[in-house]
Every structure is written in C-alpha cells, then in structure tokens.
Amino acid sequence: MGSLLVGGLVFVFLSMATSIGLVVRGRLPDHHLNAESKDVIRLATAVVGTLSALTLGLLIASAKSSYDNAEVEMRTAAARVLLLDRVMAQYGPETDKARQLLRELIERRLSRGWTAETTDETFGDAPGEYQDIEAVQAVLRSLLPRGAVQHSLQARAVEVSGMMAEAHWLLVESGEEGLPWAFVTVLVCWLSLLFATFGLQAPANLTVLSILLVCALSVAGAIFLVSDMANPYLGLIRVSDAPLQSAIERLGKP
C-alpha cells in the first residue's frame, strides 16, 4: 500500500472519528458532559494518548533505523563493487570479461531499481541479478592464476563477489518486512478514539474544528513518514543511488 494512501486513510479515519464525537455530543444529555464527566474522560484518554505516543515513537524509530540501514547497505554495495573491479584489474587482462559483466550488472540494477521485487526480474534476454552475480563468479573461478599474487587476487575477488551475492539474498529475504501493520492498526484505533473524545468535548465552532483537522493532518503526516521510510527504496523519501552512480563511473579503468 502506498505511503500517501496510508496517510490519507489515517486522516480520513481521524476526521470521521472527530465528526462522530461532535454528532454524539449534540445528542447526549447535558449531565453526561458536565465537569466531572469531562475530568473522567480526560483521565481515561490520557492513558490511551500516552500509549499512542509511545507506539508512534517506536514506529518512527524503527522506520528511521530501516532507512539508515538501507543507506549503509547502498554505500557498502558501491564500495564492494569498486573493490571487486580494482582487484580484477590488478589480476590482469584475463578478468576483462568479468569486469564487463560487473558493469552490466550495476547498469541493470540502476535501471531496474534497488528493490527485492525488481532485482530478480528478467527483461527479455536479460537475466535476474543473482544470475549476473553468479556469471561473474563463474568467470573468476575459471581463472588459472600464475603465481602466488594472482592466486591471492583470485581468492580475494571470489570472496568479495560472494559478499555481493550474500547482500543480494539478504535484500530479497528482507524485502517484504516493511511496516508492522498490527502496530499501525492498533495505533490508528487508539488515535481514532482520542479524536472522537476531542469532538465529544469540543464546542462546534470553526476555530476548534480547524485546529482538530490540522492535528489530524499532522498525525496522518507522521504515519505517512513512518510508512515511507519503512520502504527506503520505493517511497518519496528514498535512499539515493548516488554511491552506485559514482561507482559505475570508475568501473573498467586501468
């Protein structure tokens, strides 16, 4: 589900909850909303408000952690690509085919996007990324090193390409994690209850209604940010592929 859609739905739910509170307020007998009743309502909703704030804080922290990890993964991937290319360059011209395959792999990755859904898709005759990595590894393993230096460089190249393959499968396996939707659902229910009680206690004038709508929009914006950052390769706030763009400019150099 798109982050904008999630945020929009949360705003609609909170607005509806506020409207329901206003409608119920107009139909309740006066003694249901006297000073003592309002004090009890405030005490009860304070508990729910505290729980909502804690849950929203946990979600924001989790989403920020996912985003930061994705940024680190992007920079690490770019560094490994450059390292592998330089190790192959030091080995000698026998690795030219593997270096070309590596460049094509990165070009396809940049054109397809950095997501678990697109990384293994095939486009015409173009293989999935895991097949690209395995093709590079196959060339590296087929090399016949001459001397200890080339043998060491071959082992290092195979090791780095193995780390790239491992990172690929980690991306695939963790690609469906996203948001903990059970947390989000419970949080929205709590927030709806809070906004319903706001409407229940609020006088129906334009100033109060405007403030409540702005608050609902602010909360929906926070949920949007959480949802967007939990999918760091897809959303409006996405991880930049600048490290890979920079790396591809250096690939293939002597």
Describe the structure using short key phrases.
254 residues, mainly alpha, 9 helices, 0% strand
Protein model, in words:
- The protein is mainly alpha-helical and 254 residues long.
- Helices cover 78% and strands 0% of the residues.
- The protein contains nine helices and no strands.
- The longest helix is centred in the first third of the chain and has 57 residues, at 35-91.
- 30% of the residues are buried.
- The model has no long low-confidence stretch (mean pLDDT 84).
Per DSSP E runs of 2 or more residues, the count of β-strands stands at: 0
* C-alpha-based Rg, rounded: 27 Å
Q: Give the overall shape.
A: rod-shaped
Model regions low in confidence, pLDDT < 50 over at least 5 residues? none
Distance between the termini: 46 Å
Classify the helix fraction into a percent range.
over 70%
Structural class: mainly alpha
What is the tally of helical segments? 9
Outline of the structure:
The chain is mainly α and 254 residues long.
Give the arrangement of secondary structure elements:
Layout: H1 3-27, H2 35-91, H3 96-112, H4 116-119, H5 129-142, H6 147-174, H7 181-201, H8 206-229, H9 242-250
Helix pairs in contact: 1-7, 1-8, 2-3, 2-6, 2-7, 2-8, 2-9, 3-5, 5-6, 7-8
